[in-house]
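Module 6 notes. Inverse folding takes a fixed backbone as the condition and produces residue identities as the prediction. Think of it as a translation problem where the source language is geometry and the target language is the twenty amino acids. Below is one complete input and output pair. Work through it position by position during the lab.
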């Protein structure tokens, strides 16, 4: 988020944290669903988005507008969260939509956290991405922005129902719909990172030619924790095509110690 939008989001995020501290997982998840339903409304109604993000309108007026629209339709907690959100100063209607969607995601993660499911949700999202990327037809279907988002969401439901946490299913459906205006792969990666961040962890995407032993994973996690100053959640993909060695990506940092990279460098040097 831009600085101006982070500030606008802050009041709603603080309010969500206060609410989540005193509510059970079911109640938090219900509020998350309501916030995401409002995000869908804003996506369908550009005039409403513009009115709620209009900096020429006083913050109290914008907050009162959302309250009048939602009165009797959602819980008081949801109304209060969204009133705080629209009361902020946003850079534009699209940023407000992204902020509303992010608030729903943060509420979903808070509910999973309260239920003790957050680590599972993070891992399930990553493994779902692996399943999709390993099937070209499935990957094409998920990334097809010309297909109705509802149909793709139903496909996600068919794939995950009964096999993953409810929060995982809902977040995967958001990914296929294009969370934050991203493509499917980028949306899913961002959601994994948000889940890890809530656990005060960074995400390390590890590609290895062979499966790592438990001891090797522990050593790698410890080294990365030392390097980044916080816990690191390893997301490991086994790819024999790299021949040997390992590739590790944390945020924008890439550490590539694969045999494939060294061979490519050698070929380049010989060709000069």
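Target side of the pair, the amino acids:
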């Amino acid at each position: 988020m831009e600085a101006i939008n982070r500030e606008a989001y802050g009041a709603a995020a603080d309010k969500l944290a206060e609410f989540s501290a005193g509510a059970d997982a079911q109640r938090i998840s219900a509020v998350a669903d309501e916030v995401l339903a409002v995000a869908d409304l804003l996506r369908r109604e550009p005039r409403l988005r513009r009115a709620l993000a209009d900096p020429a309108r006083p913050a109290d007026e914008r907050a009162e507008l959302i309250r009048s629209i939602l009165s009797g339709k959602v819980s008081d907690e949801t109304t209060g969260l969204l009133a705080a959100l629209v009361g902020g100063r946003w850079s534009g209607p699209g940023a407000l939509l992204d902020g509303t969607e992010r608030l729903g995601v943060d509420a979903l993660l808070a509910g999973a956290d309260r239920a003790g499911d957050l680590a599972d949700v993070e891992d399930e999202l990553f493994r779902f991405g692996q399943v999709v990327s390993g099937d070209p037809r499935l990957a094409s279907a998920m990334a097809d922005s010309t297909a109705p988002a509802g149909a793709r969401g139903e496909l996600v439901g068919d794939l995950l129902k009964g096999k993953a946490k409810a929060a995982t299913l809902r977040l995967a459906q958001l990914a296929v719909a294009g969370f934050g205006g991203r493509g499917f792969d980028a949306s899913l990666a961002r959601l994994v990172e948000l889940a890890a961040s809530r656990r005060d962890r960074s995400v390390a995407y590890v590609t290895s030619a062979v499966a790592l032993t438990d001891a090797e994973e522990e050593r790698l996690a410890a080294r990365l924790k030392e390097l980044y100053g916080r816990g690191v959640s390893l997301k490991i993909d086994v790819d024999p095509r790299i021949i040997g060695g390992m590739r590790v990506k944390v945020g924008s940092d890439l550490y590539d110690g694969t045999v494939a990279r060294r061979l490519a460098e050698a070929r380049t040097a010989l060709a000069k």
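Reference fact for the lab report: The CA atoms of residues 122 and 192 lie 5 Å apart.
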